[in-house]
Amino acid sequence: MICPRCDSNTAEKIVDAPKDKSWEVYLCSTCGFSWRSTEDEAITDPARYDKKFKLEPAVLDSLLAIPPVPPLKESVKKD
Amino acid sequence: MAYKDLREFLAKLEEQQQLVRVRDEVMPEPDLSAAGRAAPNIENGPAVFFEKIKGYHNPAVLNVHGSWANHALMLGMPKNTTIKEQFYELDKRWSKFPVKPRWVSCGPVKEIKIKENINLFEVLPLFRVNRYDGGFYISKALVISKDIDDYDNYRKQNVGTYRLQVKGKDLLGIQALPFHDIGIHLRKAEEINEPLPVAICIGNDPVLTFMASTPIEYDQSEYEFAGALREEPVELTKSETGNLDIPCAAEVVLEGYIIPRKRNVEGPFGEFPGSYSGARLQAEIKIHTITHRVNPIFENLYLGIPWTEIDYLMALNTSIPLYRQIKDSMPEVVAVNAMYTHGIGTIISTKSRFGGYGKAVAMRLLSTPHGMPYSKIVIVVDEYVDPFNLPQVMWALTTRVRPDKDVVLIPSAPGMPLDPTSEPPGMHTKLIIDATTPVAPDVICRETELLATPYKTDEWEKIIRRLLNEKGVSK
Ligand SMILES: [Zn+2]
Predict the structure, then answer these.
(1) Among B326, B322, B335, B435, which Cα is nearest to B375's?
(2) In this complex, which of A5, A17, A63 lies closest to B280 when CB atoms are compared?
């Protein structure tokens, strides 16, 4: 399934509603976006998702890491 | 008086007409966040309890801390207690620190244990907090972790509130900033490539949530502070894994570990400055165990353009440590109001020992552990100005400030990265406005004679408030 936020074809259903199967939740493995099938189209439809909040898969690796991964301690490197 | 758990506090709120129950079925979106936004817009807004949420088994509650009335009730005070009175009561109880916790063998939180097929959606009625959030967030949990260099020292154990993005049935993203205590725990674990065990406790005695969001020192125990504030020890029990101390009466505990040396996309999230944080690469938590009470209540928090629940939750608990840290070396300080966006704006009232003292007080704030990154705009007023009374503060700004000498800018100082004006993220220009009256050797422009408060005014304030109460007017 297409992710509404990053347009990758990497979204999958992760759960059904615990009660009455009244909705499903989808998650994109590329950008981590998740949504519920009962949310409005501006959230669930890739064509209507607000452009300001779209995420290009190409930029994901260059996002700021908070906190940065610290260097390994010398003693651990030797193991 | 102390509340033993969230349920007891909700009962108190309901008795005091500070909780409303929504009995009709609601949709997770947009109903929950809309109600979470609406409640604090109402003067002395109530907590909102949702009994039925479409597709879920369990209820949710929002805005538990979201008004001064609820905040006063949390402290066991009458619901119409003024902010300044709540400030001084908190300060008084702060002196009782430490009150050691009591460890008990088991608690209601262990009524149900789940160790396989973890599915957060089965237990928690998750919902999107703000429209363009990257996912569903757990925004009000206590996240408990330990210092791996001193693992049995419960004082270095941290109980903090961090935003948690649900990124799978058993996976969460966490924002652990380097200056947060959990950021220190995580760095130490990652330096040796070890997973960091965490317990995420949802639905708690309101004082525990309050303390988890209070900026105290690294080796001070949130549990010992909570004991001081509630005037009774906190009851703790052990987590199933990781030897962490958890409140025995929490509604739900998620246990897992932060995956070492890995970052993944997290966010954005509508944050306390009233804007979205960006998407960033942040750490992830694998959940492997859930324990919970029967019919657990999901306590969560809406945050948006102030004021929302988080602004009540983070108001006086930010003010008190700053007040104490400054007063420690500057006893002339009378009160500190750090209620605006976690202290990004802070108002301090003080007597002036000598010329320029107001500026020195502001600089002291900017060198405290919390004031250093967070505080950007500091206003200093005279000792007789109530820093919680904004019309009085405006009076001081308009009649006591000479802009050419009382307004100071300090460029390129530490800042709060979630403040959208921090540039680069994590650096600020600081603004100090000294609105105190000049004292010698400063040049005193003109002598003025202040109007005094009539004798017995305090007493009459109390009488009038009591009369209002007796008539059932809840102001
Ligand atoms: Zn995506």
Answers:
(1) B322
(2) A63
